[in-house]
What does this fold into?
Amino acid sequence: MKLLLSTLFLIFNLTVFAQSNAFAGNYNRTFSKEGDYLIEYKLTLNQDGTFVFHSYSKIKNGFPPEVHNYGKGKWTAKDNVISFSSNKQEDFDEKNTLDFNKSKARFVTKNPRDKSDRIIKTRLTFVESEIRWIQRLDVFKI
It folds into this structure.
């Protein structure tokens, strides 16, 4: 009986670990027009359940011309929805000011059963956030 329970527990842990492997990685999105503007979003989901986000914008005649925004915290996955959270005491400082609490993103990838030639880039689409400019943002896995 102990062997059966140990085996089931091991399989469960491997399944949970394998699922987080699919989500973890680097995500990126860039918008640019030569000489006018450059906007970059970079998100890293680490295996240990933490994340780091960096937004950079350089806009000609903008005020200020260059802006860096940072955020960090923890992420969890349930089905294909990733929930982000930030601890006010641990994750906020002079550099990391973005509050990702109540932010959620949907993980989108090509279904393994889809045998068509369609190309679907693996991405995260932010569906909820109190950060207005991040809602409906797609960041692609690199």
About this structure: Residues 58 and 64 are 9 Å apart (CA to CA). Helices lie at 2-23. The two ends are 44 Å apart (CA to CA). Strands lie at 25-33, 37-45, 50-59, 66-78, 81-85, 103-108, 123-128, 138-141.
